[in-house]
Design goal:
Chain lengths: ~375, ~375
């Protein structure tokens, strides 16, 4: 069963084609999982295999063209895409290149994601071969154009994100049962993943965190076998999915007791989130929201580099809550609020909530964290 | 605790530097997760966020240089890498580019993965900016060089792969308890993921499969809510991890009864695997092993495109068991044997085992599948 009604994809294509027209592009070309899925509905974990490249061409008028390895044909035929061109991959010397060249023929200006947060998910040598073979085509950066489309979520997308945020909130509500002193951090992670699956998550692709007395050093590490101890602050940051849509928020817990610095840092981060919630409205710029949070933290800095970001098909998406991002918030955007600060030398704390920008106050998709550091 | 002793990384670097010398390269430059992890031990799920680029430079002599966002500094400092250069990322206009340019200065010939199975995990525009700024550096394709290094696993790598294959085998042994008629396929997937975590897997990044009367149409689809029915053949293909090392094998089960075509196809695939096991020895080429399997399948074709591949840090790695891959098998390589065939129009069946190439017969890392299609 497709994740969305066909009208959802028609609307996505329509918005993309309007943007292409405005930017005088003849087509958009994609090599990456998120964009292929956004425009076609083609959802598979098989992207984890780096072996085969996958291509999608969206013409400024007309239907999408999927140029993909044969192994994906059956799944692609289950989507709304009709124009599916396949080759037997891996191929000794032409892994989709000629099919792509043929499809690009006569298209003068083709948008490709080349900018911030993008990557080229195909061999660079093949990309260079293509640019050499279709000399009448100019590839131009379409990163901001595509990000602007994906940033504003449809009701159906919001429903998925809201569902997975609810599932993760339910799992966090069981913290008292799941986490305990003496438990190795990796066992805490494992228990939480199982709780998320049991609560209805399809997958738990992302779980990171840290634990330590009064704070943690790092927010991207895998867990070790060190046992949780009284006085530790445990942070778990979860990216679980449903229908391939992510939540991305964290929770902090102390074991037995917490020192005053940790309690105070928690409070500061909680209040910073409150201030952001009070300000997050359509028309406000991302860098203004960043400034609001930064002001609450009173110069406290961490190494995270920003105070929130978009999410959806990917764990993190544009925009960023950072000083240089002038994206104007719109109703339908889903973002994280993620203040972080250094508590002591080498120790940080991070809070994170997921919210939907609405006309009026934002809607919390994650269940709001407690206003004081919970003690387990 | 690091995943490997420091001597493991010293050996990996030593092998890389010998290969660089032989290829007259002054350095290797990496942008991708698997290679960063292979040479530094830097393991994090944070790569799922596309926001920040990460770079590693291995000089032909001397120590590795990690050029990474500040958010990764703490974790990178826990590895054996000492030369860590960071910047605050996301950055308004210089996301690591200047640091990378500086580190490339004076290096004439730099190997970059540009070929088969590779991708450029950084903005293409930034890559183009770098090539424009370091005009005295020539970037050359180092894909085969790097793949040749990673293909042959160390004892410590083999131990991780063997462990996760054992865990997945244990989980598959519980099939009778986990899967049942009337169960929605997505519930079967969820139950299997929980069983894998309970059996000791760190993560279950990859689980795909299919179910249908007498076979399945596709081997890369996510599960739907259709209930399993008598006569269905269920296939689950699992990529679980421990310390970031994968297993990748599948199992087939029938519910209640199986038709003769499905039983016969299972037998044919089982025998094809046996033939490959009898032939897989150091000195044999991948395309010879491919030919052996193809011969057993007697012209049966599927859309998979190859009959096996390497695995380890990634779910799939070089080499490929395919007609054009002339890689010579060596002791220490870990590969899948993955014969597949069309059972009926639009229906395929796939078998998969994970093996270690040894002097003498290969070692099965996955517990050998039963010789007849198991009926649940």
């Amino acid at each position: 069963m497709p994740d969305f009604h066909i009208s959802e994809f028609e609307q996505r294509l329509d918005r993309a084609q309007r943007a292409m027209k405005a930017a005088q592009l003849d087509a958009l070309m994609f090599t990456t999982e998120a964009e292929m899925r956004y425009f076609t509905g083609f959802r598979t974990l098989f992207w984890q295999s780096p072996t085969r490249p996958w291509f999608l061409l969206l013409p400024v008028a007309g239907a999408p063209i999927a140029i993909i390895p044969e192994i994906g044909a059956t799944l692609m035929r289950s989507t709304w895409v009709d124009d599916i061109r396949t080759w037997s991959s891996p191929h000794p010397n032409d892994d989709g290149v000629s099919l792509l060249v043929e499809a690009l023929e006569g298209r003068g200006s083709v948008g490709l994601m080349m900018g911030r947060e993008s990557q080229l998910r195909m061999p660079l040598a093949d990309y260079q071969a293509i640019t050499n073979r279709v000399r009448s085509t100019e590839f131009v950066d379409a990163t901001p154009l595509v990000q602007a489309l994906r940033m504003v979520k449809s009701d159906a997308e919001i429903a998925y994100i809201s569902t997975i945020c609810g599932i993760a909130s339910t799992a966090f509500d069981q913290a008292n049962k799941l986490f305990f002193e003496g438990q190795a951090l990796e066992q805490a992670f494992r228990a939480f993943k199982i709780a998320l699956l049991e609560a209805g998550a399809d997958d738990v692709p992302y779980l990171v965190g840290g634990a330590g007395p009064g704070g943690y050093g790092d927010v991207i590490s895998p867990p070790g076998d060190k046992p949780l101890m009284a006085g530790d602050v445990l942070m778990l940051d979860i990216g679980a999915t449903i229908a391939g849509y992510h939540c991305d928020f964290d929770r902090n817990f102390a074991f037995g007791h917490a020192d005053d610095d940790a309690k105070q840092a928690y409070k500061t981060l909680y209040e910073a989130t409150n201030a952001a919630l009070a300000m997050a409205r359509p028309g406000v710029k991302c860098n203004e929201l960043y400034g609001c949070i930064a002001g609450e933290l009173d110069g406290g800095v961490s190494n995270v580099g920003r105070y929130g970001h978009g999410l959806g098909l990917q764990l993190t998406e544009a925009p960023s809550l950072i000083g240089f991002d002038e994206t104007v918030l719109e109703a339908g955007m889903v973002i994280t609020l993620e203040p972080s600060m250094e508590v002591a030398d080498g120790k940080i704390m991070v809070h994170e909530e997921n919210i939907l920008i609405c006309d009026g106050p934002p809607k919390l998709l994650s269940k709001r964290a407690p206003d004081e550091l919970p003690i387990l």
